[in-house]
Each structure stands twice: as structure tokens, then as C-alpha cells.
Amino acid sequence: MGLLTKIFGTYSDHELKKIYPIADKIEALEEEYKALTDAQLQAKTAEFKERLQNGETTDDILPEAFATVREAADRVLGLRPYRVQLIGGIVLHQGRIAEMKTGEGKTLVATLPAYLNALTGQGVHIVTVNDYLAKRDSEWMGKVHRFLGLSVGLIIHDLTKAQRQAAYAADITYGTNNEMGFDYLRDNMALYASEQVQRGHHFAIVDEVDSILIDEARTPLIISGMGEKSTQLYDQAEQFAARLKKYVVTETDDKAEEDPAIDADYVVDEKAKTATLTARGIAKAEEFFGLENLSDPENSTIAHHINQAIKAHGTMKRDVDYVVKDGEIIIVDEFTGRLMFGRRYSEGLHQAIEAKEHVSVQRESKTLATITFQNYFRLYNKLSGMTGTALTEEEEFSTIYKLDIVEIPTNRPVIRIDNEDSVYKTENGKYRAVIRQIKACHEKGQPVLVGTVSIEKNELLGKLLTREGIKHNLLNAKNHEKEAEIVAQAGKFGAVTVATNMAGRGTDIMLGGNAEYLAKTDLRKAGMSDELIAEATGYAETEDEEILNARKLFAEKLRQHKEEIAGEADRVRQAGGLFIIGTERHDSRRIDNQLRGRAGRQGDPGETRFYISLEDDLMRLFGGERVTNMMERLNIDEDTPIEQKFLTRAIEQAQTTVESRNFQARKSVLEYDDVMNKQREIIYDQRKQVLDGLDVKNIIMNMMNTSISHLVAEHFAGNDHLDAASCRELLRQVEGLYFPKFTVRFTEEELKEKTAADVTEAFTAAAAAYYEQKEQAFTSPVMREVERVVLLRVVDEYWMDHIDAMADLRQGIRLRAYAQTDPIIAYKKESLDMFEEMISAIQSETVRRLYSVRIKKDEEIKRERVAKATGESVGGDGTVKKQPRRVQKIGRNDPCPCGSGKKYKNCCGRNA
Ligand code: ADP
Ligand code: MG
């Protein structure tokens, strides 16, 4: 702690001082509320709602509302929120991040602000990292809310639209970040408001907020459909890349790339995660693909595929970055070690890896909608979060999300011992030391949790332990429920658990073991199905006999195990509590802190130590020259820890470097997404207006007006009047579309008089009249419906193309090697132009389609149905003939078929 913070206190100390008086008020109500009957306590909800309607604010009623929840939680769950939990709840209500250590009871904390804010009737979202936790929390905490008369919903995978709507309509909705983000995107693709599921973004409480807003923020959410591009080129690029020789640069020879004498076809920079062809590699590529010049723009597709192929070979490691499972490439989350099912690397890298691993290469998909988590969560009027580890990311939370962090004191003092790192010269030496430590703990029965950074290391350690005959649980990326179960038992006497970082985040490790999980195992032994067990341990309301009996058995077993565990917990405490071993420093200090925090919860004893070797990636890549030199100088054997003060500093420095690099990467993702976000907001907002029943006719008439006046202006070409030829030309484009032939005609005399405004007026009047006529024929309600659907469809089609075009633009701009221009500025400028073009294209296309709408006669519809059903026509001889394609000849002066409203020769036909 620096001297200044010692004197003045930290930011959190300062902020807490302002919160204590509010906590005092809540605590002062304790006795009064204890004396209430259940009915009286439940009546508070209606009273609060009324007071809010009469002008009081949520801040005004906070002490009473919190006191109500506190009392209810005690009665319903047997948990009475501690003072620090009340404080955490206040911080959340204030729209900030509450940093509360693992085991402090954050799940319960969230009920306090959730109840208070739900009283306004606008809906509160509680967001967790996975389905398992969302379900657990909604059932468990849902009991308190239901007791108080609020409804609770749950958003997880595999729900129908109706179920989602019901869940979002609830006062409080628990759900995962992925599902909520996807629901938002899907809502904005709906054609009817009744198909939408969310009802606004009022207040969100994000659990494990660093995991969701920081770790997950680098991969945006994408809804995609099937694209048309072929996949063949990936296999070819792979065949080519597989025979190349690579060269991996290390810290000290950054210059290798420019070295012409280097004996390699491509150079890999592990630090920057890039792979680049050398001159020799380029020559080989040109020969392989039969090209004259690989850097020629017309070969850019091949060049792109080659680049992804060598990237797949050079920088992407199997079982570290991804795994191959059932013929699919699954990304491994580098922070959690979890498999990210359904996520794909973008820009063809995923396909390149598929080709490399010889699994079937999936079609490139077309993005239909996309958003980053940053921009999704910024939609909320009020955002708050909780986690054990946020402070290291203070800057990011404040600049990106405008969230400040208040560190909440623990309920009981932390007595965990955090040891200095043990640094070894080699990886082998390090692992031997780790095994020695595990053995030492194991002998006295002290449970050990070993954290590993990758699946590969995780399995390696497992093998070493097996060789030593130490029984252990190995955990890497399984399903969340299993994961939670194993982690929950990590505190048993003598347990050894090896897990990838943060496996089972959100699950409490209790010393002596977790009674709940042991009781569950008993139910399983009693022959109960997994579903029944889930019901038996769940909190959902039910009257089912079987479930109620199972619950009775569960409660009985739970009580038994709790008694046993109490004794075992004491033995574990004597042995020193949970021992945490880190086998490598993670890129981010936060992840290390998260691992440490699993020990010493609620005042338990515990100990942590990180084991590091100078050969670890982090040290090798970011340790700097001093570390490298030292490696050579040191005359220490492998098994002796190196104790050098500067090493600890070097490690932390390396971590800060990587952290800020990652922050920059996320910031860059966001900077680009921000550009699109503005456009997305405009599009989604206008869509919403249409869905909410805006009168579209007016808009359509304005669009028609704009389209016609553009056409007219184009044909006037800056002149005061129109000549006969141009007039004919102009008429050809408007007649038959905006109004029937011969509706408007000008004599040569008239033409000499008419200005552009006159002509526009004449045309638009005719077009409006024609539209009225159509409306009469269709009837107004039908016309309104057609307008809505056509407008939304056109907007969606163009917007989806625009998303892809923006991605291409971004890629293109990155490839442009102009040192002087800031790529983001170029991107902003060009994408704005593209957006404006898209808007005007949407307008003319919508108008065009609406004016082309015809009422179909009965037999016409019938004929079409038959044609559609068969797809082909059958000739007299019974052979199947392909329907002849109707080719439309477009004249150079005809309107361009792309719907731009320009002449073909001035638009798509420019080079024809
Ligand atoms: P966190 O998310 O902060 O790591 P959890 O919400 O998972 O912690 O809670 C950890 C454990 O603490 C749970 O078993 C819970 O039942 C218990 N707990 C939480 N609040 C209280 C309380 N006020 N009194 C007693 N036990 C509590
Ligand atoms: Mg938690």
C-alpha cells in the first residue's frame, strides 16, 4: 500500500463512508421487521409500489426495501444478509461494481437491489456466465422474490419464444449473457412486435462481471446464416501451407522477418500471434497456385487463404487454443479453459484450422446480425456488476462502461497466506517442485487445488500425479454441472483437484466438502434419475408427490452430511485449509487473483503459491532481456528455486504489458463496433418504430417523393428545362412503375416552361394518385400490412449486406499499408458513405417493390403454387425439363436492376 493511500485511504474507503449511514438505517429496522407476520412482510411490496407511484424514489425506499428482503431471505432460505452484503447491494443499486471476494455470498446480495428496482415494474436482469448458474440462482433466490410477491423468469438455452416472452415479462429475469444478447439481436430481426421477447433494458446486475464484460468482450455475438462461398480454396491453401517451413521469432530477434537469408518460408511471431510469408514463401505460393504476382489485387482471395493457413499452422495450437471434438474444431477460452461451443474464429481462420486438422471445412457463413457485449450492456439504463476480481481492470471498466469499483470489506478477516512465487530455471524443475508440494500437503490431508493455464498442461500434470500414485480429480472443460460438482468437493480432507483456470467459477469450495453434492450422490445411489434429482435439489414450486418425497430424502441426507462435514472441516482447518497451487502465471493478474481467491473464504485458513519457470510462455515472450540473460548466467540446478526480487517485478511487469495489450485489442474491437453501433442504433430504432405501429404510409410517400425528385434532377442535369429526348428518357423510368403510361405528358411547349420542381410535382401527384388507387383495390389494412413487411424486409436485406460489407471494408483498410492514415478514421469515413448509400438504396428499393405489388388473380396464385411445388416442369414425354430462365435484357439507359434508381450505364453497367 502506498503512503498516500495509507494516509488518505483508498477510493473505496472514501465511497464506503458515504454508504455506511444507509446500511445503518437498514440494520436499525431489523427488530421491527422481525416482529412482522409473513403477511405483513409480504404486504410491503404493494406498499412500496404505491409509494413509488406517488413520487418517492427507489433511493427513498431503499432502507425499508432492503430490510424487507433481508427478513424474507432469513425466513425463506435461512440466510440473513450480513452487513457487508447490504453494502454490496447498495453499491449495485447505485449502478457500480461491487468487488466482493469469493464466498462472500454475492448471489444473495443481488436479491436486494433486484427487488428494489423491480418494484418500478420495468424489469431487472440478473446475468450470469452459464446456464447452470442462471438456473441455480433463479430457483434458489427466486424463492425470496416469490415470497414477496414478485415474479421470476429464467432465460437459458432451448426455450421457445413464448417461454422467453414470459421470462422477460417477469419482474426479475435471470439469464446468461449469451442468451440475452442473442435475444436482443433476434428481436431486431422480427417482423412483428408480437414476436419480440425482450421488453427493454432497464437495469442489469452482471455476476462475475469481469468474466463477461472483459474476458468475453473480445468475441462479438453473431447470428449467421448460410453463405454461398465455396470452401475448396481452404483445402488447397492447407496443402500448400503444410509443406512450408516455418521460423519462430523469439524476443531477441525481431528482425528475422526482413532477413533474406533466413531458411524458412514463413515467419511466426508468437507474441503478436502473426504469421508472414518470406520472399521465398511468396515465390513458392506463386508457383503452387500458378500466379504471376501474389500481391496483385486480383489474387487477394488466394493471398487471404494462404495467410489464414499459415496462421493456423504457426500460431494456433491444438489443445491449447482449440480442441478437435467429434469432427469439429472447438475454441478453448483462454481465460477459463472452457470449450466455447458454437463460437467460430472469424475471417476464415476457423475454416483454415478445419483444413489443417482434416475435418470437414464448414461453409463460410453470412452475418445476419452482430453486436459486441460492450455495446449490448451499454444499452441498459443502469448497469452494475459484482465479482471477486475487478480492481486490476479499473481503467477499462471506467472508460468503456463508466463503471467505478467499490471494494467491499469481507465479512470476516482474510487469514489466507499468499506466498511469494517460487521461480525455477526449467519447466521440468518447476513441475517436480509442484509435485513435491502436492505430496507434502496430501500427506497431512490438506486439500490442494492446482490451477493450470491450458488443457495440455492440465493433462500433463494429471499424468505426473498418476505416476506418483496420488489420487486426484482432473478437470478441464466439461459440462458446467459436473464441473461444479467436482470443484465443490475440492475442499475435502486429502482431496487433490487439478483444474484449468477458474473451472467452476461461481461454485463455492467449502472446507470438508459440500454436503449438498454428497446428498445428491446418495439420491443417485437410491436409483433416482438426474431429472428427479434436479427437481429434488431445486427450489421450483411443485405439488408432485414424487418430487416432494425426493426432497424429503434429500433434506434428510443433507442434514446427515452436514454433521459429518462439520467434523471433517475441522480436520481440514487444522491441516491448514485449502492449498492453491498456480502452475504458471496467467497473462492477466486478475485470473491469478481469481484462483487465489478460491481459498480462505469467510475467514477460513488457506495458502497459495505460484510456481513459475523461466521457460514459461509469459517469461519467454515478455520477460525481457534481463530474464533471458539471467537464464544463461545462472548456475543454479533445476530443482533449486531462484530467489531474486527483480524476478517478481519482471513477472508483474510482463503481466501488465499483456494486460494493456489485451485492453488495446478489446478497445480496438469496440472502436470499430462503435462505428457500426451508431448505424445499428439508427436502423434498430427505426425498425422499432415500424414494429410499434408507426404510420408507414407517410414515410413511403416521402420516399417516393425523394426517389422521383432524384430521378428528375438527374435528367435535368443542372439545366433549367428538359429537352424532349431527356423527357422521353425520364418518362420511361417512371411510367409503368409509379403510374400507368400516358398519365402525365408534356407538350414541347410545356417543357420549355416546366422547371424540375414542376415536373417533380406532376409526377409525384400522379404517383400518389396511383398509390391511392392501389390502396382502394387492396383495402387500407392490407396496404398498411404490405408496407410494413416490405419496408422491414428491405431494411433487413440491405442491413445484412451492409454488415458484411463493413467487415470487408475493415479487412481492406487493415491491409492498406498507408502509414499516414489512421485506419479507424478511414473506416469511419468510408463506412458513413456506405451507410448513406445504403439508406438511399433502401428507400428506392422499398418504393419500387411497393409500386410493383399487384393483386394476384386466383388462378395466377394457383399456377404459381404448382410451379413452386414442382420447381420444374414435366415435358410431354415425361422427362424433366429445367424451367427456361427468363433473361431480362437491360438497355444502357434503363433503370439499373440493383434498384439504385440510377441508369444502368451510370451504375452497375458502368463497365459493361
Ligand atoms: P460468491 O458468489 O460471492 O462466491 P455465493 O453466493 O456462491 O458466493 O455464496 C457462497 C456461500 O455462502 C453459499 O453457500 C451461501 O449459502 C452462503 N451464504 C451467502 N450469504 C450468506 C449469509 N448471509 N449467511 C450464511 N450463509 C451465506
Ligand atoms: Mg458467485
Describe the SSE topology.
Layout lengths: L2 H6 L2 H18 L1 H5 L3 H16 L4 H20 L5 H11 L3 E3 L6 H13 L5 E5 L2 H17 L4 E4 L5 H9 L2 E5 H11 L15 E5 L1 H5 L7 E6 L5 H11 L3 E4 L16 E4 L4 E4 L1 H11 L10 H15 L7 E4 L2 E5 L6 E2 L8 H8 L8 E7 L1 H5 L4 E6 L6 H8 L3 E3 L9 E2 L3 E3 L2 H17 L4 E5 L2 H13 L5 E3 L4 H9 L7 E5 L14 H11 L4 H8 L7 H30 L3 E5 L6 H8 L9 E8 L3 H6 L1 H10 L11 H47 L4 H21 L7 H11 L13 H6 L2 H23 L1 H36 L7 H30 L5 H13 L2 E2 L5 E2 L31
Parallel strand pairs: 1-14, 1-15, 2-4, 2-5, 3-4, 5-14, 7-8, 16-22, 17-22, 18-20, 18-21, 19-20, 21-22
Antiparallel strand pairs: 6-13, 8-9, 10-11, 11-12, 23-24
Helix pairs in contact: 2-5, 2-6, 4-5, 5-7, 5-8, 6-7, 7-8, 12-14, 12-15, 14-15, 21-23, 22-23, 27-32, 27-33, 28-29, 28-31, 28-33, 31-32, 32-33
Magnesium ion binds next to helix 7.
Describe the 3D structure:
A seven-stranded parallel β-sheet has the order 3-4-2-5-14-1-15. Helix 5 (58-77) crosses helix 7 (106-118) and helix 27 runs parallel beside helix 33 (823-852). It is built from 34 helices and 24 strands. With 912 residues, it is of the alpha/beta class. It starts with a helix and ends in a 31-residue tail after the last strand. The radius of gyration is 33 Å and the shape is globular. The chain folds into six domains: 9-222 and 375-407, P-loop containing nucleotide triphosphate hydrolases (Rossmann fold); 228-363, Pre-protein croslinking domain of SecA (Alpha-Beta Complex), CATH 3.90.1440; 417-511 and 577-654, P-loop containing nucleotide triphosphate hydrolases (Rossmann fold); 514-570, no CATH class; 680-852, Helical scaffold and wing domains of SecA, CATH 1.10.3060.10; 858-906, no CATH class. A hairpin with a 2-residue loop joins strand 10 and strand 11. 54% of the residues lie in helices and 11% in strands. Residues 79-82, 85, 100, 102-108, 508 line the site of adenosine-5'-diphosphate.
